[in-house]
Amino acid sequence: MSLTPDRPVADAVTGHWVDRHAPEAVRPYLRLARIERPIGWWLLLLPCWWSAALAAIAAGQPGPSLWHLALFLIGAVAMRGAGSTYNDIADRDLDARVERTRLRPLPSGRIRVRHALIFLVLQALVGLAVLLQFNRTAILVGLASLAPVAIYPFMKRVMPVPQVVLGLAFAWGALMGWVALLGRLDAPAYWLYAGTIAWVIGYDTIYAVQDIEDDEIAGIKSSARFFGAWVRLAVAGCFLACVLCIGLALSGAGAGPIGLSGLALFAGHLAWQVWRLDPRDGAEALRLFRSNRDTGLILFCGLTLDAIWQGLM
């Protein structure tokens, strides 16, 4: 094993319990699953919650299913960990060449590849157990999400904007909440999925601003490199497409003024991110990227309150 000092990776939450209290033998596995970087599972979870709330509006139910929300939470943490483990196995050589990622458990040598593979399987089994709690159609839709997850780590070697494939994977929850409740996929779910893909491309472009120089050296492709001096305009375009598509989803599902107000606040937060983005400031880019948890919660609260109001009325 490596003698690399046991330090948190660059974008971990400062003072997280994993780095302060977790046993040393377990800590590398928790880091491999990104437990000390909770923004990842939040961003995987929120589209599921949006979709569950939007489906409740369409079905006339007074709020999304609490059981479904809990299952999505467990599944998001497990599958984000599995996806991160798989990504790090595929990217271990590239990660060793990038300053921000070279201290990750695999490139630093703290975990062997075969142990990471076992850990990957265990996390995937938790995700499968969650998925099997839903109806048959939802199970099939959930299994289909494995396709973009499987190919994403290799796209950054060949695609100028690999965030498109990341969007296909991370936005999948926008379909899951709808199909879990209604047992089918309808136009609002597809519009929500399209809007969420645009959101993912936008926020991950902000995230990629941190690594532009290292990515050029390592030969890693990213949307931040591709858009270059036009990165702010590109992020603005992604966020505009996101709001328009989600607006169509809300309209198709029968959302009322409360849901539309939530969308307006969501759009305002995205506009604030564009205004604050400075391609030369990696630290601010990380803060803006993390703020998308709050952006997503704003929309979820709006949709949930709308469902409750319409369901009770």
Automatic annotation (TrEMBL):
Family: Belongs to the UbiA prenyltransferase family.
Any one of the GO CC terms: plasma membrane
Reported function: Catalyzes the prenylation of para-hydroxybenzoate (PHB) with an all-trans polyprenyl group. Mediates the second step in the final reaction sequence of ubiquinone-8 (UQ-8) biosynthesis, which is the condensation of the polyisoprenoid side chain with PHB, generating the first membrane-bound Q intermediate 3-octaprenyl-4-hydroxybenzoate.
Protein name: 4-hydroxybenzoate octaprenyltransferase
Cofactor: Mg(2+)
Family matches, as HAMAP family: UbiA (MF_01635)
Keywords assigned by UniProt, alphabetized: Cell inner membrane, Cell membrane, Magnesium, Membrane, Transferase, Transmembrane, Transmembrane helix, Ubiquinone biosynthesis
Transmembrane segments annotated in the record for this chain: 39-60, 66-90, 111-132, 164-183, 189-209, 230-250, 256-275, 296-312
Biological processes annotated in GO: ubiquinone biosynthetic process
InterPro entries: HB_polyprenyltransferase-like, Prenyltransferase, UbiA_prenyltransferase, UbiA_prenylTrfase_CS, UbiA_sf
Entry's localization field: Cell inner membrane; Membrane
